[in-house]
Every structure is written in structure tokens, then in C-alpha cells.
């Protein structure tokens, strides 16, 4: 559970740690602001993908569904810096689909936590498999990590691409190719 009081105390320490005067006028409200901001950035800590994926609609056709270019913002668990980009989700239904917005909501549930990109990709795929029961899921994330751009190795523009395949996508190059073909359209 998000504890705003703890966050406020922590931010005060952090400000002192970098040599700031936490009581100067410009910083007085900063711990409070950050506590409120963290409630938003880490809202996924208090949510479950299940809440979004249990309501389904019956379909007769089990053709691939692709929702692409879902913008997401997450935070790298190593440096607490943002990584952000696009998520692309494809799945092969098994007689039922979810509302399109629920795919983006599932991304949000897991992105709004401290993450590794590979883990985030896998968690989205696993949740879709578990709660929607499709024949297969493919999740691809493309993101820029600020810990790679504004510090350390400093390589702005570098993109990290991760993929998680589940179900029929694991052993069907044909389906995987169709995904990449649909991505280009
Ligand atoms: N696999 C993976 N690595 C990540 C992710 N986000 C950040 N990293 C990497 O985590 C690593 C942490 O490496 P460390 O050597 O422990 O920390 P560091 O000294 O800050 O590393 P540098 O970034 O190389 O300066 C770095 O190589 C980051 O690029 C991610 O989502 N996935
Ligand atoms: Zn990092």
C-alpha cells in the first residue's frame, strides 16, 4: 500500500542528501507533491489486471487482434528513472475478446510499478493468458530508458525492444510473421 507519509519523509532525506535546504521556500511543498505524484506513478501497486480482463465479448472468428502503439510510462527499478515508449499487444482469441481499452489498462497496471522492461513485457502477456484465456499472446515493448540517456552511458535515442510470446505464438513462425506484417500497416 502506498504510504504518503513515508514518501514525504524519504524525499526530505533525499533533499538533505544532495545538500539542499529542505525548508527553503521552493522546496517546502516538494515532498507533498512527490507523494501525490507517486500515488499516480505507482498506482499499479494497488491494482490487479484481473479487474479489467474478466469482462469478455463472444466472437465467432478467432482472427488475430492487434492493438499497437499503446503509449506507456514506467520506472526502472535500478535507478528510479523513467523508461517510456510504445506497447504492442496481439492475441488470438478463443471464442471471446476483451474491450480494446482493457489491453491498454492492463499495460497501465504493470507499467505503473517499479519495473524491468523484460519483466513488464512478460507480466502483461501472463495476465492476458491467465484472465482472458486466448489461444496465444504476443507483447512487444519499445522504450527509451532515461538511465541510458541522461546518465551513465548517455546514449540518447537508443531503444530497447522486448517481446513475450505465449500459447500458439511460441511455436508458430507464421503467426509471428503475421504480427510483424500487421505492425507495418
Ligand atoms: N535488463 C534490463 N536492464 C536494465 C533495465 N533498466 C535499466 N537497466 C540496466 O540495469 C543495469 C544496472 O547496472 P549496474 O552496473 O548495477 O548499475 P550502474 O552502475 O548504474 O550501471 P550503468 O547504467 O552502466 O552506469 C544497467 O546496465 C542499466 O542499463 C531494464 O529494464 N532491463
Ligand atoms: Zn535504470
Automatic annotation (TrEMBL):
Gene3D superfamilies: 1.10.286.10, 3.30.1130.10. It catalyses: GTP + H2O = 7,8-dihydroneopterin 3'-triphosphate + formate + H(+). Keywords: GTP-binding, Hydrolase, Metal-binding, Nucleotide-binding, One-carbon metabolism, Zinc. InterPro entries: GTP-CH-I_C/QueF (IPR043133), GTP-CH-I_N (IPR043134), GTP_CycHdrlase_I (IPR001474), GTP_CycHdrlase_I_CS (IPR018234), GTP_CycHdrlase_I_dom (IPR020602). Signal peptide: none annotated. Zn(2+) binds at residues 76, 79, 147. One of its GO terms (biological process) is tetrahydrobiopterin biosynthetic process. SUPFAM superfamilies: Tetrahydrobiopterin biosynthesis enzymes-like (SSF55620). Pfam families: GTP_cyclohydroI. Residues 7-183 form the GTP cyclohydrolase I domain. One of its GO terms (molecular function) is zinc ion binding. It comes from the Bacteria. Pathway: Cofactor biosynthesis; 7,8-dihydroneopterin triphosphate biosynthesis; 7,8-dihydroneopterin triphosphate from GTP: step 1/1. GO terms for cellular component: cytoplasm. PROSITE patterns: GTP_CYCLOHYDROL_1_1 (PS00859). Its EC number is 3.5.4.16. PANTHER family: GTP CYCLOHYDROLASE 1, GTP CYCLOHYDROLASE I. Belongs to the GTP cyclohydrolase I family. Homopolymer. This is GTP cyclohydrolase 1. It comes from Mediterraneibacter hominis.
Amino acid at each position: 500500500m502506498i504510504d504518503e507519509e513515508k514518501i514525504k519523509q524519504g524525499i526530505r532525506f533525499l533533499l538533505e542528501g544532495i545538500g539542499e535546504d529542505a525548508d527553503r521556500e521552493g522546496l517546502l511543498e516538494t515532498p507533498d507533491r512527490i507523494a501525490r505524484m507517486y500515488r499516480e506513478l505507482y498506482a499499479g501497486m494497488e491494482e490487479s489486471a484481473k479487474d479489467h480482463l474478466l469482462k469478455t465479448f463472444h466472437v465467432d472468428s478467432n482472427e488475430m487482434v492487434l492493438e499497437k502503439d499503446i503509449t506507456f510510462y514506467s520506472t526502472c527499478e535500478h535507478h528510479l528513472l523513467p523508461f517510456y515508449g510504445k506497447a504492442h499487444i496481439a492475441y488470438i482469441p478463443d471464442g471471446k475478446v476483451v474491450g480494446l481499452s482493457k489491453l491498454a489498462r492492463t499495460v497501465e497496471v504493470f507499467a505503473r510499478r517499479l519495473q524491468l522492461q523484460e519483466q513488464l513485457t512478460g507480466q502483461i502477456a501472463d495476465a492476458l493468458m491467465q484472465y482472458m484465456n486466448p489461444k496465444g499472446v504476443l507483447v512487444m515493448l519499445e522504450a527509451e530508458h532515461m538511465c541510458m540517456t541522461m546518465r551513465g552511458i548517455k546514449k540518447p535515442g537508443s531503444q530497447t525492444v522486448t517481446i513475450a510470446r505465449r500459447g500458439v505464438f511460441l511455436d508458430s513462425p507464421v503467426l509471428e510473421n503475421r504480427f510483424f506484417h500487421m505492425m507495418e500497416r
